[in-house]
Design brief:
There is one protein chain. With 172 residues, the chain is mostly helical. The C terminus is likely disordered. The chain has six helices and two strands; from the N terminus they run H-H-H-H-E-E-H-H. A two-stranded antiparallel ribbon has the order 1-2. The protein has a domain of 118 residues: Arc Repressor Mutant, subunit A (Orthogonal Bundle).
Length: 172
């Protein structure tokens, strides 16, 4: 492949991102230890970022995995009391999941273990460089999220499965 070929450039770009992801995931796994795996941490991070209840279907779509796989992760997190899963008051077949205070605490604890490891790995690398590329990476992620949602027909935030500001009552 010609090094000036746009397809080759895009391939190299995503190869670099993929390698970084593999390296970070390996470090994350070591830092988290047996208490939590990277999938559990990813789901908790998603909840901390969104701060509202969502359905298991929404999470499976967001993480691009089969619903049974997401259900297994959620069952693990619920057993540890890191999330709560409640049936909708309107439709008992529909479930909503939200992070618990214990889940937030576990996420903070995990971050406290991950932070020093990542700082050590980035020693000698200018954080200003990361700060410069973050907006472009965020824009790329948003673009790719939107393209995936359009391709899957799920909309920007699938309003049927993720409801911002949803506060689950004891009845839900």
């Amino acid at each position: 492949m010609n090094s000036n070929d746009p397809a080759n450039f895009v391939f190299r770009f995503f190869t670099e991102i993929g390698i970084i992801n593999q390296l970070v995931t390996a470090e994350l796994t070591r830092a988290l230890g047996p208490q939590m795996n990277s999938s559990d941490f990813g789901v908790l991070t998603h909840f901390v970022r969104l701060d509202h209840a969502v359905t298991p279907t929404y999470l499976a779509q967001a993480f691009q995995m089969a619903k049974p796989s997401m259900t297994a992760i959620l069952a693990r997190l619920e057993k540890k009391e890191f999330v709560s899963i409640r049936a909708s008051a309107k439709d008992k077949r529909r479930k909503f999941v939200r992070i618990s205070d214990a889940g937030r605490a576990a996420h903070r604890d995990a971050l406290s273990r991950i932070g020093p490891v990542m700082a050590e790995r980035l020693a000698g690398f200018e954080l200003s460089t990361i700060a410069q590329i973050m907006p472009a990476l965020s824009e790329l992620r948003a673009h790719m999220d939107a393209a995936r949602n359009d391709a899957d027909g799920i909309g920007a935030l699938n309003r049927f499965d993720a409801t911002p500001n949803t506060k689950l009552s004891a009845a839900e």
